[in-house]
Structures are given as structure tokens and as C-alpha cells.
Prior knowledge:
By secondary structure, the chain is an alpha/beta fold. The protein has helices at about 5-10, 20-30, 50-60, 70-85, 100-110, 130-135, 155-160, 185-195, 255-265, 270-280, 285-305, 335-345, 370-390; strands spanning about 35, 95-100, 120-125, 140-145, 170, 200-205, 230-235, 245-250, 315, 325, 350, 350, 365. A seven-stranded mixed sheet has the order 2-8-7-6-5-3-4, with helices on both faces. A hairpin with a 7-residue loop joins strand 9 (about 315) and strand 10. It comes from Rhodalgimonas zhirmunskyi. It catalyses: L-aspartate + 2-oxoglutarate = oxaloacetate + L-glutamate.
Amino acid sequence: MGLSNRITGLTGGTSGGWDLFFKARAMKAAGEDVTELTIGEHDVRTDPAILDEMHRAARAGHTGYADIPGIPALRDTIAARVQAATGVPTARENVVITPGGQAGLFATHMALCDPGERALYIDPFYPTYPGTIRGASAVPVPVTARPEAGFQPAQADIAKAASKGAASLLINTPNNPTGVIYTRDTLDGIAAQAQEQDFWVISDEVYDTQIWNGEHLSIRALPGMAARTLVVGSMSKSHAMTGSRVGWVVGPEEAVAHLINLSTHTTYGVPGFIQEAALFALNQGPGFEADIAAPFRRRRDIALSVLEGQNVVRAVPPDGAMYMMLDIRATGLSGQDFASRLLDERRIAVMPGESFGTAAAGHIRVAMTIEDSQFAAAFAELVRFAAALT
């Protein structure tokens, strides 16, 4: 008797890239003063008005089983939001509510991939991507987005990876970990291959409200793509509701109907009082979302000003999301070694680029998730540390 290969092989025999994060947390638990620039967790908690609405809804009795697809008003609001942003007709029937974006990623791969089928994803990647694909009993296949190409995935590389067969391709723009926003040319190339080689696209768009330069375009809006795209969204980043676990999947009505069946057999929906709070939050409008995003824009500008006048640490153009990817190859260290020494010698925790795949080797990811003055001091110390290594 034993455990399933699916569960024992979920991480592919690795830690999933979290070793340094766990080490930093252990140091803090032991009483050491560690500055954490590791995970995408807002330094400002969920707005009290949202929590008040959650409390009101719970006290009003919305604590029983909620509609499994999501409460109608929330689905309608998300549909209208998506249609306004993309121009693609979107109705309630195109939306299913999930317990956060991560559950949406798992659900979409379950819906699109049969056991043993190849599921592509872009490297660098959010560390749960390969395990999510394995959890759906599919085979994760990375497609490298090279630093010399600005981490924009190339159409030719996608075509080559899909030539052996592919059920799906998972993309993420604005991107975690790089902060890159995929260009129209990049998205056109992905769309062309999806249609030519007949695979689905899963588009993780949870950072779509954090745009610092350029604009975000959903691949679902491109010609011919609405019928073969599932978009994953979330309240976590846009409204600082990470712990509330509210996300969604938007896609063709038939696919969404099957995703609703999956919810019935797995999560059985999201608590109604949390959905009511999410609906309230969305109805606060784009100004509210801009306020949530504003600290990350400020810290991006702080970091860029610190980087001026030196060439040891170079920023990958930080066009979106709450992270900055830094090229530290001039130090002669790998991202892993640099991050480990930075933690041990300066008590600053960042994520090694290698945590996000092979493409980001020689890089580190900095989460811009602490108060401005603390961030400025920590970032300046990071740059001084890099300079001392050279």
C-alpha cells in the first residue's frame, strides 16, 4: 500500500524553489531581524470596508452553501468587467468562481489535459505551475523565454515545443517573476501557434491592475482566441484579498459548464459571505484598484533611482506586477548563491531566479512589498552588496 504517484511526484522531487524563503522565515522565527522581499503579499492588509462587508454578509446569514458556480451578481460583475476590458462578449455563463487563482489554474488544467498529455508553460514561471500540471496528471513542458529577448517567449520556441503535441499552453502577463508585459507581437505569435497546432491557452492575468509601462492585452481578445482561451483572474493582487481566496475562470460556455461540475466534486464553491465582499470590492471601481497598486509603482521608481549610475545590478524592464527581476550576473554568482549570501551576510531575503526555472539563472526576484523607506534602504543595501562582490 502506498500513496499515489500523482501526489508523491507533485513537485518533481524538488522543493519547488522555496528553500530560501523557508530559511528566511525560520531565521525570523528564531528572533533574527530579516528584511523579507520574497513573496507577493501586500504590506497593507485588506481594506476595512471590505472586511465590514464580509462581516455584514456573514451576519446576514450568507454562511451556508453558496451557489457553486458563484453568486449570480458576482459572476455578472466579473463578466461585465472582462467584456469592458477586452471587447469580447462575456456573460455570466462564461464565468466560474474559484477559491483563488491557484484553484483556477488547477481547474483549467484538469479541464483541458488528459493524463499523460503535454502541457506547456513559459520559463521563468511561478513555482506552482509545474506541480499544478502534474496534479492534473499531465506532463509539464517548459518553453524558455530568454533574458536576451526581454523574457518575451518566441513563437518559434512555442512551435517547437508543441510539435510533439500539446494540450495547452500556460502564459502569465503581466508576468511573475519578471515584471514583463507580453507585447502584441508576442501574443500574436502565441495565438498563431495555438490555432495552427490546435492547443488551448490558459492565461494567468492576476496582475492585470498593476501596469507601470505600456498596456495589458488579454490574449482572449485576439481574433479566434476566445474559443480556445481560459483566463484566470483573482481578487488577491488587485484588492489585497490574498487570504480571502476568491478567483475566477473566464472561458467558453461549454468549458465553464464542465468547470462548474469540477467545482461540485472538489471545492463545492466559495463561501457566500466572501463572495459578497468580493462583489463589494469590485464595485469600488478602478480608483480603488489604483490605490492598491500605487505603492508598487512608487517602489519601482525608488528601485530604478537606486540603480542609476551603476552597472553591476541591472533591472529587467519592470513594466508590471509587484516584483522586480534583477540581473546580477556581473557579480559572478548564480542567483541562488547571491541570494543565499545576501541573506546570511545582510539579512535581506530575496528569491533566486533559479527558483522560477532555468531561464532566470543569474537573476534574483525582489518583491516590492515593504514600506517605502524600508524598501529603499534594503534595496540600496542590496546594490552595495553586489558592488562589493565585484
